[in-house]
Design a protein that fits this description.
Keywords: Aminoacyl-tRNA synthetase, ATP-binding, Ligase, Nucleotide-binding, Protein biosynthesis. GO terms for molecular function: ATP binding; tryptophan-tRNA ligase activity. α4 runs parallel beside α14 and α8 packs across α9. The chain is elongated, with a radius of gyration of 22 Å. The longest helix has 30 residues. The strands form two sheets. Strands 1-6-5 form a three-stranded mixed beta sheet. A three-stranded parallel beta sheet has the order 2-3-4. It is built from 14 helices and six strands. The protein is mainly α and 353 residues long. The chain folds into two domains: 224 residues, HUPs (Rossmann fold); 80 residues, Tyrosyl-Transfer RNA Synthetase (Orthogonal Bundle), CATH 1.10.240. Helices cover 52% and strands 8% of the residues.
C-alpha cells in the first residue's frame, strides 16, 4: 500500500501571512513541538507559538512535547520532566492553542516512535550524524567534547516523530531547512529500501522573528539567563526589563539615542503598537525620552499581551486534572495513528510476524 502522499482536502482559500510550503501544494497535517526543559519564554512566543495558533485553523496540527528528547541534555534530572510537561502544556493553552483544534502529545507515551527510531538507525551512518550542522552547532554551544548516543542520534529520533504521524509539513525557519532535508533523506531511503510506507515531509517556511536576549545576545534562552518567561509575574518582568541592555552611548536622558542598536527598542518593534514604536524612535533620536520611561512603556506593552494569557493560565492551573486529560486524550488519538503507521512499516519490511 503506497501512502507516500495523502489525498486530503485543505481549503485552498486559506492563506497565512509569511507562510508557504516549498512545493506550493496543499497538505493536511503539520507536526511541531518543544522539548520540556523549562518554561517557555517570549522568544518561543514570537518564534513559534503565535504561528501555531494561526496554523491550527488551517492544518490538522500535531504538537509534540518531546520529553524523551529532553533527556538528551537533561538525562541526570528525569524527575523534573513531569512538572516541565505540565508547565509547557500550560504555556500552550495560555497562548491560545486549542485542544479541539490541535492534538497535543506526550512523546514518551508513544512507544512506536522509539521503535521507528531503531529501524531508521539501522541505515543512518554515524558520519552523517557527526556532520549534521544542527548537531555540530548545538554541541559547540553546549561545550560538548564527547557526544552521547542519544544526543548524536537526535535527528533520527526527530525524523521518527514526523514520520510516525505521517506529517506532511513541518513549520521551520529558513535556517532549519537542513534539518528537514536530513529527515527527508531518511524517509526517502526507507521508502527506497522497503517501499513507500512513509510520507516524505516538506518544510512549511515561515518568517520566525528571532528575539534577542535581555543582555543583547542574539538569542533569548533560558540557559543564557536572558529570558522573559511567559509565566513570569509582572513585577519580575519589570525588573528584568530594567536590566536590559540599551544604547551605551546615552548617559543622560537628553542625550540623542540610537534605537537601531537598542535591545529595548527591538522589543518595542515586536510588542508595542506601531504608533507608540514610531514615537519612541523619534523621541529617542531627539533625546526627549529617557531609557527608564522607554522601559516602562515596554513593560506596559508586554503586560497588555500577557494579561489574557495569564487569565487562561490561571484557569488551567487551578484545573490540573483537566490539563492532563487534554494531554492523555491527544496522546491516545496520536497513538492510534502511530500504531497504524508502524503496522504498515513492518508489513513493508516483511517483519510483521
Amino acid at each position: 500500500m503506497n501512502n507516500t502522499k495523502r489525498n486530503s482536502a485543505v481549503a485552498s482559500e486559506f492563506k497565512f501571512e509569511n507562510t508557504q510550503n516549498t512545493s506550493g501544494k496543499s497538505y493536511a497535517r503539520i507536526l511541531t513541538g518543544d522539548r520540556p526543559t523549562g518554561p517557555l519564554h517570549l522568544g518561543h512566543f514570537c518564534g513559534s507559538l503565535k504561528n501555531r495558533v494561526a496554523l491550527q485553523n488551517i492544518y490538522d496540527t500535531f504538537i509534540l512535547i518531546a520529553d524523551v528528547q529532553a533527556l538528551t541534555t537533561n538525562f541526570d534530572h528525569p524527575e523534573l520532566l513531569r512538572q516541565n510537561i505540565f508547565n509547557v502544556a500550560l504555556d500552550y493553552l495560555a497562548v491560545g492553542i486549542a485542544p479541539e483544534k490541535s492534538t497535543i502529545i506526550i512523546q514518551s507515551m508513544i512507544n512506536e516512535i522509539a521503535e521507528l527510531t531503531i529501524f531508521f538507525s539501522m541505515f543512518v551512518s554515524i558520519n552523517a550524524l557527526k556532520h549534521n550542522p544542527t548537531i555540530k552547532t548545538e554541541a559547540k554551544e553546549r561545550g560538548y567534547k564527547e557526544l552521547n548516543y542519544g544526543f548524536l542520534g537526535y535527528p533520527v529520533s526527530q525524523t521518527a516523530d514526523i514520520a510516525i504521524f505521517k506529517a506532511d509539513l513541518v513549520p521551520v525557519g529558513i535556517d532549519q531547512l537542513p534539518h528537514i532535508e536530513f529527515s527527508r533523506k531518511i524517509v526517502r531511503r526507507f521508502n527506497e529500501l522497503y517501499g513507500g510506507a512513509l510520507i516524505e515531509p516538506e518544510a512549511l517556511l515561515s518568517e520566525f522573528p528571532k528575539l534577542i536576549g535581555l543582555d543583547g545576545n542574539l538569542k533569548m534562552s533560558k540557559s543564557y539567563g536572558n529570558a522573559i518567561f511567559l509565566s513570569d509575574d509582572f513585577d519580575t518582568i519589570k525588573s528584568k526589563i530594567r536590566t536590559a541592555l540599551t544604547d551605551k552611548s546615552r548617559i543622560h536622558p537628553s542625550d540623542p539615542g540610537h534605537p537601531d542598536i537598542c535591545t529595548i527598542f527591538s522589543y518595542h518593534k515586536t510588542f508595542s503598537e506601531s504608533g507608540l514604536t514610531k514615537n519612541i524612535e523619534h523621541d529617542c533620536i531627539a533625546g526627549s525620552i529617557g531609557c527608564v520611561q522607554c522601559k516602562n512603556n515596554l513593560h506596559e506593552s508586554i503586560k497588555n499581551i500577557l494579561i489574557p494569557m495569564n487569565e487562561k493560565r490561571q484557569y488551567y492551573k487551578e484545573r490540573a486534572s483537566e490539563v492532563w486529560d487534554i494531554l492523555f486524550a491527544g496522546t491516545n488519538k496520536a497513538k492510534k495513528i502511530a500504531s497504524e503507521t508502524l503496522k504498515e512499516v513492518k508489513e513493508n519490511m516483511k517483519i510483521n510476524y
